[in-house]
Specification:
This protein has one domain: Thiolase/Chalcone synthase (Peroxisomal Thiolase, Chain A, domain 1, 3-Layer(aba) Sandwich). Helices cover 34% and strands 18% of the residues. It has 13 helices and 11 strands. The strands form 2 sheets. It has a 9-stranded mixed beta sheet, sandwiched between helices. Strands 5-6 form a two-stranded antiparallel sheet. Strand 5 (192-194) and strand 6 (197-198) form a beta hairpin.
């Protein structure tokens, strides 16, 4: 890719977030799409590229009345939207399309008009994990976290601090699901879900969605919104079953995706002003900080506990409150992207002063996939 050749010109979430029982999944996609179009002054007729995950891109295009010249239905879990951004940049650069709409919509809480495919379906999962009781996400993530605790000194208090700090960021956001302060004791005394995960270490279950609109940088200045340029990108996958990770204390997909994003962006860690790391559970920012190279092995837990990622810290992270406090309808990546866009536009309720580069990193499944997007507000 050519850094800054493509920009995000439209970005919006659904009109409501949290509990939306009167809208089905496809309606949430459409609501987000229409809000993103209104954000940048475009109409459905201007869209010639469509990408989505968790829903059929054919059905989405038909529902919106689009006959695209480019389509992407890549679905590798919650980071699919990061991959869509990468693919859209390639398609726009190659002249396959001019204006791409990426949507997410999910009735995760109300289950209204909800499609119910098998979660992280794979033959390996059906043979080697599910028969032994490994099913819902909390039961899948416990093994690697316990290995990290044994090998690196990560503690339950470190995990709790992730939730505490992100609740501090959520307090700035009027649309966040939970805004009241919490303490480490609050987290550790909340209901046990699957050791070591307590309830406040686990993601929310909500309804909502979001959408992005991308076009070439030379067109971006014609829009009423401040362009957010795509400077670097990366993606990778590792394994559909967590028991087959090469190293349970580190994600190979994280390392490959993050390294590629840094390389294509031509930046160093010191250049990053703002960081989003997908946090379906409290351990994921810890893995992200280490696998992306912001800190060394075993250092992420103390790094967060010392206040480095909280408001006023040297590396503001998950400034919307993340999947633990802001929103998590099932596939969280879109909400992380939305907050990176807000930060680069300078309009986030938790705005980081003078932020020029945002690194947005996602996970798909149980460390099965990863996508990384580097954004900037400087052309």
């Amino acid at each position: 890719m050519t850094p800054n050749s493509v920009a995000i010109v439209g970005a919006a979430e659904t009109t409501d977030l949290g509990k939306i029982p009167d809208m089905g999944q496809i309606q949430l996609h459409a609501d987000a799409a229409l809000n993103a179009l209104a954000d940048c002054g475009l109409t459905i007729k201007d869209i010639d590229g469509v990408a989505t995950a968790g829903h059929s891109p054919q059905e989405l295009a038909h529902y919106l009345g689009i006959v695209p010249s480019w389509v992407d239905g890549t679905s590798v879990g919650g980071c699919s939207y990061m991959l869509h951004v990468r693919h859209a940049v390639a398609a726009i650069e190659a002249g396959m399309c001019t204006t791409v709409l990426i949507t997410h919509g999910e009735s995760g809480r109300s289950r209204t008009g909800f499609l119910s495919p098998a979660m992280f379906a794979s033959q390996f999962d059906a043979q080697f994990e599910r028969p032994f009781g490994v099913s819902i996400p909390p039961t899948r993530f416990t093994l690697p976290v316990m290995r990290m605790m044994k090998d690196t000194g990560l503690t339950e208090e470190h995990l709790a601090m992730v939730a505490v700090v992100q609740r501090e960021w959520a307090a700035f956001h009027p649309r966040a699901s939970f805004r009241d302060p919490i303490s480490v004791d609050d987290v550790l005394s909340s209901k046990m879900i699957a050791y070591p995960f307590r309830k406040l270490m686990c993601c929310l279950v909500t309804d909502g969605g979001g959408a992005l609109i991308l076009t070439s940088a030379d067109r971006a200045k014609d829009f009423p919104t401040k362009p957010v340029y795509i400077r670097g990108l990366g993606e990778s996958v590792e394994t559909p079953v967590i028991s087959q990770m090469k190293d349970m204390t580190s994600s190979a997909a994280f390392r490959v995706s993050g390294k590629k994003a840094f390389e294509t962006a031509g930046i160093s860690h010191a250049d990053v002003d703002h960081l989003m790391i997908y946090d379906a559970f409290a351990h994921l920012p810890i893995y992200g900080l280490e696998d992306l190279g912001f800190v060394g092995r075993g250092e992420a837990g103390p790094f967060i506990a010392e206040g480095n990622t909280r408001p006023g810290g040297k590396l503001p992270m998950n400034t919307n409150g993340g999947g633990l406090s802001y929103m998590h309808s099932g596939m969280y990546g879109m909400y992380a992207l939305q907050e990176s866009v807000r930060q680069m536009r300078g309009i986030s309720p938790a705005q980081v002063p003078d932020a020029k580069i945002s690194f947005c990193h996602g996970v798909g499944g149980m460390f099965g996939a990863s996508g990384s997007v580097v954004m900037t507000n400087e052309a």
